[in-house]
Amino acid sequence: MATSPLTLQLQLQRSLSFSHSLIPNLYHSFPSFTTLNFNPRKQPTIQCSSRNSPVETTNRNSVRNFSKKIPSPSSVSHTDKSVSLESKSLNRVIEKKKIENENVVEKKKKKIKDSRRVKLRLSLDLCSKRGDLNGALSFYDSAISQGVKLGQHQYTVLLYLCSSAAIGVLRPAKSGSGTRTLNTQVSSVNRNDDDNRFCSDSDDDNRVLDNSVSVSCSSSEKLDENDEFKNLALRRGFEVYENMCMNKVEMNEAALTSVARMAMAMCDGDMAFEMVKQMKILGLSPRLRSYGPALSTYCNNGEIDKAFDVENHMLEHGVYPEEPELERLLRVSIRAGKSDRVYYVLHKLRSSVRKVSNTTADLIVDWFRSKTASKVGRKKWDKRLIMEAMENNGGGWHGIGWLGKGRWQVLQTSVGNDGMCKCCGVQLATIDLDPVETENFAKSVASIAISKEKNSNFQTFQKWLDYYGPFEAVIDAANVGLFGQWKFMPSKINAVVNEMRLKLPSKKFPLIVLHHRRIRGDKRDAPISKAVVDRWNNAGALYATPTGSNDDW
């Protein structure tokens, strides 16, 4: 394009040409930029051309008006910034919408997974209720294939079903009585509570366990089928347990107890006991049912020392054996001929069970009729020491060990309402708390009182009691004074105190416990006679409980 030397070029997006030259200017469009030419001549014509349009002629005023509309470089820059901000804002909106859509998709997926998890839980609970192991394993396999994450409850139900089938106490579509029996090696798993069933339904009519492990089969083929089912339960049970550990699902006492039961089915007492020890490591509290598999396995295997190790572990963790556990310990002790162990367990039965079942009674009779029982015992002993030991133990037993040798006389008899044996005519002793039980009871009462009393009032009472005690009897003076009427009568307290003194061997005043307001009197009741109060105080027999202290202690 021909231009004068004074031509000023400005690049724009479209091509424009302005000329005041007498010679017509030729215009050529450029593909990528626009050119503006200014020539200070007197020619009034102005040519405007576009890349795709013909040249148009306008007057000078139009050119001026048009030139005013051309944006300055600063305004172009400001526009670019606005466009950039709008672009960023649009990108943020698009990104936000994208995230929202992703969240909606995730929520839908989570809802589907939650729905599957809920259905799985309900299905497994129903299988537990019916004792349907195959159905439960089918639901489990389906959930794993669909990527459903199982929780603690689902794993616990599966382990319970597998362990029950492995030890032979799973009865599909049947219910058990829930009582504890002694004629089966797994009686420890048959409790009288709903904890044996790890399902949400607590209806007592829907028990899963039966109380017998015996399987009545009419053919060896049936026995083989039963063994195959137990092996399947063991294999799948340990598979479920491994998955639970691999997925780091939190363990609970019920799950570990089920694993211990599977170990019992394999006659592995060490593994069953290890499950109990794991509970302590995980901060779980073992229960009586937790010890049953290990104790039962050791007793059945004749491992007497390990069996009593389990019992010691129970006592250390505040779990006390009941008759089924003691019956197993007694049986294994008799088989091993351990007379000292038999003596220990018999006293355990005496102190904790009192009245034994027929099965345990038959076992005790078998012991006293055995040759081993006739050979153990002292030939000589000090009768005085025996009587002192019996008195110190609360009466009825001495705890020194077997006395005498020779065959025992075993007879069946009954005891009258007066406590007299109808066979030998001996009066049964009234058994009191032994010294250890008395001390533990006193400590427990003191700890409760101290925790509830204010200003160490009970500790003050303990010091007072150490100074003025001991007492042979205690009188709750408030109840005596109010007995039979609404009005407090101090004369009744005095009458009971005097009568009590006459009956006590030492003729000493009994301990009189009365709130200090009763002694001074209030608006309704007159104070107790000063002479009577002084008499009790001089004898060191009256303790006035302060405000905030419970006189029932």
Automatic annotation (TrEMBL):
Keyword vocabulary terms for this entry: Hydrolase, Magnesium, Metal-binding, Nuclease, Repeat, tRNA processing, Zinc
Domain PROP1-like PPR: 108-169, 217-374
Start-end of Polar residues biased regions: 44-65, 176-189
Biased composition (Basic and acidic residues): 191-203
GO biological process: tRNA 5'-leader removal
InterPro entries: PPR_rpt (IPR002885), PROP1-like_PPR_dom (IPR033443), PRORP_C (IPR031595), TPR-like_helical_dom_sf (IPR011990)
PROSITE patterns: PPR (PS51375)
An example molecular function term from Gene Ontology annotations: ribonuclease P activity
Record's protein name: ribonuclease P
